[in-house]
Structures are given as C-alpha cells and as structure tokens.
C-alpha cells in the first residue's frame, strides 16, 4: 500500500528563494553569481509573463533574450501551459522503453510537415544532443569520418558537438577532440578543397551564426549544397536557435532554398517548459543507422520522446500554426531592423545592424572622433567586447531591458526576443537603445562609468 505524502513547492520557494545566489556560489558553478553581481544582473525574478519578467518588487523587465531563444512564445503561453496540465493529468504509461509512445509519432508528423523533403525524426533532450545525433548519423550513413565546420560556429558543448565548435574559448582544455576541420564562414573554395580529399561525411552549418549573428552570404548555402552532393557528403543544418520560426521562416535554411539531409532543432520546440531536441533526417540515413533489429538502440536516449516534452512540442507547433507566429516574427524583425539601421549613420560607434526575422545583431566599432577614441581604446586594451557589455548593462539598468553580448571578444549585442513581441516592444527597445547611444556618444554617463568598472575587474581577474 502506497503512503501518500505532501510536498509544498510554493512554501519551499517562498521560504528559501532568497538563498538562490548563495546556494549557487556554494554548491553549483561558483563563477555564475560572481559574474551576475559584476554586471549588476543579480536580480531576484519572481515571475514571467509573455515577453516580460518581474522582480521581487514587481518591477517589469522586457526580455529581449528569451532564455537564449527558448521562449519563442514568451513565458507561460496559456495553450502550452494547459497542455502541461493535461499530459500530467492523463496519467500515461510513461517511458516503458518497450512501446511506441503515441505523442512522439504525432509530434514527428507535425514537425516533418514543415520540412517535407525529410522523412524521420529522432527525439533527444537538448540542442547539443540533436547535433550529436546528426554527426553520428552522417558518419555512419556515409562511411566517412570527418565533419567540416565554420570558424565562430556554436553547435553545443558536449564532446562531439564541441569538436565542431568554432569558438576557441569553449574548446580550450577539453582536448583531444574529434578530428574535424574548421574553415572560414562562407568560404566555398575552402569547402571544395576539403571535400576533394574524399573523407568528409558532411558540413554542419548554422544558417545564421549565433555568435556574432553572422548571416550566410547570399547564395552560399545553395552553392555549398551543390558541392556536397557532388562529393556525396551531407548538409547538416543546425537550427537549434534559428529554427521554429525565429527568422520569419519555419527553418532558416528555407530562406536559401536548400534541402539539408539532416536538421537539428530544439529550444523553441520546448514551449519553454520541457527540454527537447529533435534531429530530422532523410529516410535513407535512418535506414542505414537503424539497419536491423540488432541496431534498434544503436543511438537512443532514456528520456527521449517523453510525453511531457512531446506535449510541449505539439502545443507549441499548434500555437505557431494557428496564431500565425512565424510570419509575425518576420514582420516584427523587419520593423526592428528598419528602425535600427538609420542609427548606423547617426552614431559613429554603431557599425552595423544585421540579421533576419527576430535574430538581430548590432555591431559596434572604433569611433573616428578623438573625444571618444580614448575611452574605446581603454576598453579594447582591457578586453575586446567590453563596450558591448556596457551597452547591455545600460539597457538593463536604465531601461529594464534584458539583452546579451553575442559572444566572447565580440563587440556585438544580440536580440532574440520572444516571437510574440509587437510594435510596443519594438518602440520601447529602439527608444532605449537610442537613449543609450546618445549618452555614450557624449562621452560620459552610465556606459563609460560602468566601462571603468569593467576595466578594473579585468585587471584584477
């Protein structure tokens, strides 16, 4: 006979939530609370709703980060939230490991409807797992060992995906990694040279690189795909951040008219509730990998296809399709870029505004005027990327807008807000960013004050 106990989660959060930063400092990653304190981001958030966060004092913050792209529908979308209640209340026979769970098949069907040239799906638990599966499938299906990837790429942090990560700061100290090959982003000649060696299983590419928000040059993906087919290698599209509507297409590769052999996606598919990763692929690839009953579990995950994740994915796709979220994201992204681009000619430290849909990068560059050059040079001498961090800091503390620097040693801030933002949020961001730039170009104020703090922190480690 089972004993029924009670557990009060709300009381636990209310009673000990204030210990969050101390618990992390003592028991988890000790640098996280230190970093958040340094940049003044150590707030105590108590709830989220749509595109907004609220702290313990009820103060509202506009979220232009969306959990690195997880909250495409904003926080706590009512349809996804209800699906979570429904799947728990259903009391399904979960994770028996020896059945064919219905929700996984239904989610695969709905997902593949947005990629009609692909045939099958593998469900894991995260973006890096989706990439890992794609790398393994490409190697096995082609019988070749090497993957080509691009400089500045980010494909995850587990060992396989780290091997195709073009950012040295993540790779350092974790070698030896798999013997894959890095080439410059958009360099067709370099790709052709590697493919001619005959041992390349595939090319893994983000249609828009998350680090720096670098967009593939026009025509590049199509030309690269032609080269890959010529040399019988596979195109692997990493859509972990760009996919599920972010760029105004369901998948970003669709803008370039290519048909990848494998597609990795995650983040937004979760609805912001349950982690899920998906690897979509051609039938012949899956048939090669799972070629017999002896190989039925050759690549698998204990928690893959769990009902909560599948329900979150089904509800998310339902909202995307019925509320026209993808085209809305394209329209709001175009409006935001249209409003920001004139600032390039207006402010000498704003070098470029780029992106597609609601994945936008704002790059800063060295000022031409003597008045600003000394402060810029001091920040660059301490560490490249500090000016962008001062802008993120000012947007947060002056205007209560959450953004991020797009990568280590990059003078780029990245905007990846929920896809549900409207003109009011676009107006709020543009007004705030313009205000911060006005102050920064006067050579005084919060941007430069915080810059001096960052310089001091950099010197003292």
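-> sequence recovered:
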């Amino acid at each position: 006979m089972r004993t029924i106990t009670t557990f009060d989660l709300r009381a636990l959060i209310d009673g000990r939530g204030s210990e969050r930063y101390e618990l992390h400092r003592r028991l988890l990653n000790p640098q996280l609370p230190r970093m958040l304190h340094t940049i003044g981001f150590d707030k105590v958030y108590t709830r989220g709703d749509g595109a907004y966060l609220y702290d313990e004092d009820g103060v509202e913050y506009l979220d232009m980060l969306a959990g690195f792209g997880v909250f495409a529908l904003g926080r706590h979308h009512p349809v996804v939230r209800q699906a979570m209640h429904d799947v728990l209340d259903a009391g399904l026979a979960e994770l028996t490991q020896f059945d064919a769970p219905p929700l996984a098949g239904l989610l695969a069907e709905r997902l593949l409807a947005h990629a009609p040239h692909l045939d099958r799906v593998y469900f894991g638990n995260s973006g890096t797992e989706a990439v890992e599966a794609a790398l393994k499938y490409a190697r096995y299906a082609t019988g070749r060992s090497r993957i080509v990837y691009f400089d500045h790429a980010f494909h995850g942090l587990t060992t396989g995906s780290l091997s195709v990560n073009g950012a040295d700061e993540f790779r350092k100290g974790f070698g030896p990694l798999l013997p894959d090959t890095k080439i410059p982003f958009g360099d067709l000649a370099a790709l052709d040279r590697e493919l001619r060696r005959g041992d390349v299983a595939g090319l893994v590419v983000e249609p828009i690189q998350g680090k720096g928000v670098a967009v593939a040059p026009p025509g590049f993906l199509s030309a690269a795909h032609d080269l890959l087919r010529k040399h019988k290698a596979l195109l692997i599209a990493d859509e972990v951040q760009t996919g599920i509507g972010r760029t105004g297409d369901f998948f970003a590769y669709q803008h370039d008219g290519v048909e990848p052999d494998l597609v990795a996606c995650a983040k937004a598919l979760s609805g912001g509730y349950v982690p899920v990763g998906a690897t979509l692929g051609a039938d012949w690839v899956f048939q090669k990998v799972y070629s017999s009953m002896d190989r039925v579990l050759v690549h698998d995950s204990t928690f893959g296809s769990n009902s909560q994740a599948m329900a979150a994915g089904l509800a998310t796709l339902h909202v995307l399709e019925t509320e026209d979220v993808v085209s809305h994201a394209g329209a709001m992204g175009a409006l935001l870029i249209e409003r920001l681009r004139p600032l390039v000619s207006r402010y000498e430290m704003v070098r470029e505004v780029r992106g597609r849909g609601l994945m936008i990068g704002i790059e800063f560059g060295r000022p031409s005027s003597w008045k600003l050059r000394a402060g810029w040079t001091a920040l660059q001498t301490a560490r490249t990327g500090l000016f962008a961090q001062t802008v993120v800091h000012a947007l947060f503390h002056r205007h209560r807008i959450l953004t991020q620097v797009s990568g280590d040693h990059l003078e780029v801030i990245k905007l990846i807000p929920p896809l549900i933002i409207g003109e009011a949020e676009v107006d709020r961001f543009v007004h705030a960013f313009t205000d911060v730039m006005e102050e920064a170009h006067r050579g005084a104020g919060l941007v430069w004050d915080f810059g001096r703090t960052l310089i001091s922190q950099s010197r003292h480690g």
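The mean pLDDT is 94.
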